[in-house]
């Protein structure tokens, strides 16, 4: 009888362990997919866009792009057509084609506002292509919470990925070896 109970207990432990490992693997696959196909590319493109924008402002000795003066228009058109819009197009495509990877139940407003902002710029660039430079910016402003949302989401998913990749035993080992190294220093 004891053998049967022990065998059944072993089976239950194995079953539960296998089930938990499968759930962990499924969660890791989802987190990786969100990072690789949505939040990662969105984060990189956003960071690149911000670095480029700050670089342009520095070059023009400005703290903000508005107003765009007549003397700055040629440079603004160049940067918009070769740097900012290509990055905006990448982000817009990610948001539209990979929306199912959004973490939240509802599409965050800042993502919708970003896509709308980009669409507004497409109209401006179409006018520029026809030689009409009467409009300098999208009539739909940049969503101020967009960059913060992208960064927070990316960092939260990276933390979740790390948590899922490493078991409790790994964390215990890491803490012990880290403490030993700190004491040795």
Structure description:
The protein is mainly alpha-helical and 185 residues long. Helices cover 76% and strands 0% of the residues. The chain has 5 helices and no strands. The model has no long low-confidence stretch (mean pLDDT 87).
Question: How do the strands and helices of this protein lay out in sequence?
Answer:
Blueprint: H1 2-59, H2 73-97, H3 109-129, H4 146-165, H5 168-184
Helix pairs in contact: 1-2, 1-4, 2-3
Keywords:
mainly alpha; 5 helices; single chain; about 180 residues
Termini separation comes to: 56 Å
Measured by DSSP, the beta-strand proportion falls in under 5%
Order of helices and strands: HHHHH
Shape call: elongated
Percentage of helical residues? over 70%
Oligomer: single chain
Largest sheet: none
Average pLDDT reading = 87
Q: Cα-atom Rg, whole angstroms?
A: 25 Å
Low-confidence stretches: none
Overall number of strands? 0
Number of discrete domains: 1
Structural class, by secondary structure, is: mainly alpha
Q: Enumerate how many helices there are, as a single number.
A: 5
Summarize, please.
With 185 residues, this protein is mainly α.
